[in-house]
Amino acid sequence: MSEINSRGYANADALVSTDWVAKHGNDDGVRIVESNEDPLLYPSGHIPGAVEIDWAADLNDPLRRDYLDRDGFASLMSSKGISNDTTVVLYGDRSNWWACYALWIFQLFGHTNAKIMDGGRMKWEAEGRELTREAPDVSAANYSAPERDDSKVRAFRDDVLAHIGGKMIDVRSPEEYSGERLHMPDYPNEGALRGGHIPGAANVPWASAANEDGTFKDASALRDIYEGNAGLSSDDDVIVYCRIGERSSHTWFVLTNLLGYSDVKNYDGSWTEWGNSVGVPIEK
Amino acid sequence: MDDIPSPLSEMLEELGSLDRVERAQYLLELSDDFEEVPDSIATRPFPENRRVPKCESEAFVWAQDQDDGTLKFHYAVENPLGISARAMGAILDETMSGQPLDRVANVPPDIVHTIFGRQLSMGKGEGLAAMVELTTFEARQRLRQR
Fold first, then answer.
1. From the list A43, A56, A186, which residue is nearest B123 (CB)?
2. Cβ–Cβ contact A41 with B under 8 A
3. pLDDT by residue (tens digit) across A170-204?
4. A38–chain B Cβ distance below 8 A for any pair
5. A9 exposed, middle or buried (CB, 10 Å; 0-12, 13-18, 19+)?
6. Which of A211, A214, A212, A209 is nearest to A256 (CA)?
7. Contacts of A256 (CB under 8 A, 6+ apart)
8. Distance in Å, alpha carbon of B5 to nearest chain A alpha carbon
9. pTM beyond 0.80, yes or no
10. Which of A242, A255, A259, A264 is catalytic?
11. Contact residues for B104 (Cβ-Cβ < 8 A; gap 6+)
């Protein structure tokens, strides 16, 4: 049994280790994808064979605040050498925030055969593993995407309004949750006019789920955090949010894949929408 | 952009013509060429009054007075992952050192978005903009002293 399988996760297949990537990263049918906050990290050195997907340039619509559409996703997958049956393994900086964000967006297009490399880029580097600046040799693949389906794992503002009183997790820092700050420590104000949190949301900062090396905590520790402390149970309908949906993607991944919750939605509008919306309720 | 140092103006124009991948490559080369502050100017531990506020890459800025009245700028970036900060330091040194102080003082911090593009995250953008601000502050301070 691998070390990841021993952690008691509901869906241990959603995670692979750095060892696994070192052995299988260039297998047929596997595509390693790096997704970072820092746009210079991938070109500065990446896992051999890995392609890059940028959260802003590749996954977001350039004009509207929304994600790419069916044609855009199909075109992106094709250009990265990903076909419908490719096993996609994502990793990145910031303890895999953006890797989880990308994986979550993959779900909107039904590409469920996607995994996270536990520990992300930080662990790979800490282990002294190979990084290269050589561009991978990628041939365009055939990819057929369905229409984007936002109904299962994505929440919009009106969904959140209707959900008040239900289970909600605010994954931001305690200072953002309390309204003391309008942004992450060391980050600028991103334009939210009001501080606080959505009424009834519990505060469980995303990092609660991560070990110091960026790997995920085991299932028992995660249950203590989300069920023992925050009062969730696996049959709850849960909405998670943060600032723009990147940190909450990390928590969405934990609840959905590691703890096996069946109805967790990520509110990607998050505080940058809620904190600016006219008339919505706010709690401090 | 007629009132900023002409080497910077030219670099901004060049960056504007690059696509995302070309821009990243260009910035990475600058980052690789980054020259840290020489020992003759500062040695570790670097003084806190030279630290760039809000910069997660732990950048530091120095200004060295030149005989011709201009400034030579020096930078240090302590975070080994501070690739963008090193590129920013290399750009500021290359385009602002030896330039007329009134032009250096005019450089707005939001050039970081022209340099790094829309992919730049808010957090990183603020740290890089603070490197620009600390650099231009040195020029403004010299101008006030004259």
1. A186
2. yes
3. 999 999 999 987 765 555 555 688 999 999 999 99
4. yes
5. buried
6. A209
7. A153, A262, A264
8. 26
9. yes
10. A242
11. B4, B5, B71, B96, B135, B136, B139
